Amino acid sequence: MLPDRIIAEKIEEQQWLEKINNEHVTVMACSNSDGSLKLPLAVIGRSEKPRSLKNIQSSNLPVFYASQQKARLNRKIFNEWFEKEFVNRVAGFLTERNLPMTAILIVDNASSHLAIKASFGDIKTHFLPVSAAATSLLQPMEQGIFQTLKIHFKHTLVTSVLNAREDGIDVIRYLRSVNLREVIHWVNDAWEEIRPSGISRCWEKLLPVIRENQNVRNASSQTITSSEILCALHRIDEFKNLTENQVDEWIAYENTEATSSTIMTDDEIIQMVLCQRNEDETNDEEINCEDENEVTGTDAINAINRVIHYFKKSNCMTGLEMCNLYRLKGRALTIKMKS
Questions:
Q1: Where do the domains of the chain lie?
Q2: For the chain, how big is the Rg over CA atoms in Å?
């Protein structure tokens, strides 16, 4: 999660890397060309019944969750997702808008996709060219969507680590405490942050007419530099000796992991750690510090954590309601880090 693989040799006690939670998941994203229909992310983990998701019904999760021994997408999972998620949600979307029941799912030629039915009525599939180079150039999700998703995820992760450190929790202890439930909500929040305009822009190589007809704007409303990312990571003791070149390498390495075809520039990297949002804030900062009733950022975050814990135990909230609580917690973390 953090830039451990690249800068481990710079850390005196490398053993800490072996103590963190090395669990991983596979994430699959799907959207139509103008971003008006973003399907819930598909998340594949190793465990069929993760402890952190105990007593949580799948319908209350903000994602489509499936399990596989190595947390990889296989044919069985893909077919299940296609029939239960893609077909149903696309059909509902078309019906609501009184559109013909016609759609094409564009996928690459991965082995996990090849067993899929060629069509489901007039909802059909179309495979990209076999060439890996051609796929990376044409695949819309590899034109910046995956990278943006990961950067939003990093924003939440690093901000959470910083908050834990301020509360006296070391990096190892905190990272070991991160569970699948939190990861699901973090990655879902990251998906929610991706705007339709950004999705449209990533379809332009496959469907150039979209950009011409819709006058798509760059999805990045705010920018952040490598220096700002470095400054945030320097607040974590284990990464205080990082250089800006190492941060750049970390970003590039993560992009390679996701088979992204290009390295985004600073102008295209949006909303990382400690980045201010373009939304109106309340004037809480103007509250008199001497007010004995002042609520600190830590107070707010602890209160939200208690609310999340309460409703998780009661199992009486919808998936959307729980997502809103996690999103509220993320906003509180960001405000705290800015103050």
A1: 4-280+295-338
A2: 21
Residue from 159, 188, 189, 184 nearest 174 by CA: 159
The pair of three-digit structure tokens given for residue 336, joined into one six-digit string: 């705290």
Instruction: State how far the alpha carbon of 178 is from the alpha carbons of 3, 42, 72, 298, 305, in Å.
Output: 16, 19, 20, 19, 14
Q: Are 80 and 66 in contact (CB under 8 A)?
A: yes
Using CA atoms of 113, 114, 115, 118 in order, give the dihedral in degrees to the nearest 10: 100
H or E element at residue 304: helix 297-314
Looking at beta carbons, which pairs linking 322-328 to residues 24 or more positions away fall under 8 Å?
Answer: 322/60, 322/62, 322/185, 323/62, 323/185, 323/188, 323/189, 323/192, 326/182, 326/185, 326/186, 326/188, 326/189, 327/189, 327/192, 328/304
Q: What is the pLDDT of residues 52-109, one digit of tens each?
A: 888 888 888 999 999 999 898 888 898 889 888 999 999 999 999 999 999 988 887 7
pTM of the model: 0.69
Q: Tell me if 29 sits within 8 A of 149, measured CB to CB.
A: yes
